[in-house]
Amino acid sequence: MKAHGLAQQAAWSAGTALRSTALCLLVLGFAADLGDLRAQVPRSVTQRGALTEGELRTIRIFEDASPSVVFITTVDHVRNLWTRNVMRVRRGTGSGFIWDEAGHVVTNYHVIRGAREALVTLADQRSYPARLVGASPEHDLAVLRIDVEFDHPPPVPIGSSADLRVGQSVLAIGNPFGLDHTLTTGVISALGRTIDNERGGIIEDLIQTDAAINPGNSGGPLLDSAGRLIGINTAIVSPSGTYAGIGFAVPVDTVNRVVPNIVAHGRYLRPTLGISADDALSRRLLSSLELDGILVLRVARGSGAAASGIRATRITPNGGVILGDVITEIDGEQVSSFGELVNKLDRYTIGNEIALTIWRNDEYLDIAVRLTAPIERGFIE
């Protein structure tokens, strides 16, 4: 009996010890859980000071300008070869912006080139069909018009590109990769750049910027630090087709000259002298004279050149050549090719008078010529 009692006492003591150990483990586990819970409490937020003046200015410019930036979707019509049904297929996307109170939208020509339809989506997600008013492929510019009455955002304020300087801050707003109303910032990297246009010619005096410009940004505004339009984003240089630090914009002075012309006439009417020329022929005929300029081959009837007495090249009855006038300068700037002449004339408007320096009969003359719209009356024989 005594041995049995001792066994019971030992068993009770062992049970008590086990219960105490389990209780300690439970308490320790609860404490560990509390520690985990404390570790999961969010950290306190470090307060910052006020936004910098530069940040506030950038925010203000974006908030003021972004409602006037639009998202452009182009549509093609594709016929199903089996059912013969015509389907509307999305062709591409780009950017644009409200130009004036009449609701004209300006974008790049390459954004809408070849499309059958264009859909303009505003910042508040309202979408409207738009028609093409006209375009200037030479400048990569196009104008769309929303014909329905709508409460449109204000036009983007117009600046000047004549007084831009390398190093100025710029902001680009657009819809890269379909991500609408994206802001990127940078500086003007260079001025007076030249790239090829859609017609195989060149676009001169472009603004180069390091603000990120990606596919879909085309047609969007490039703004200065005052929120004014100084260019239209048009192209990038990149082996992969995405941003590589080099983007280009058509300067606003060009835009402000070309767009009103498109709105008024449905196309861009270049100011012309009313002459024809051929660079290869000019070089061949002028090489022996050691002249560098543009040989006038023909003069159009009713043109400014005809009114000013510019002389064309003539062929004599026996097959000889009597050289016409050779244009060497425009307003004091030397020209050596017909393409260069056309691009320099593009800085002027129809009706402007310019000073030509020409070579005629072994002497140089200064002649004033009034620029006209393209002449379609034929050439003086």
Explained architecture:
The protein is α+β, with helices and mostly antiparallel strands and 381 residues long. It has three domains: 63-145, Thrombin, subunit H; 169-265, Thrombin, subunit H; 275-370, PDZ domain (Pdz3 Domain), CATH 2.30.42.10. The protein contains seven helices and 21 strands. It has helices spanning 2-39, 53-65, 109-112, 252-265, 279-286, 304-307, 338-345; strands at residues 69-79, 86-98, 104-107, 117-121, 127-136, 141-145, 169-174, 182-196, 202-209, 221-224, 229-236, 247-251, 275-276, 294-295, 298-299, 314-315, 321-322, 326-330, 333-334, 353-360, 363-370. The strands form five sheets. It has a six-stranded antiparallel β-barrel with strand order 1-2-3-6-5-4. Strand 7 and strand 8 form a beta hairpin. It starts with a helix and ends in an 11-residue tail after the last strand.
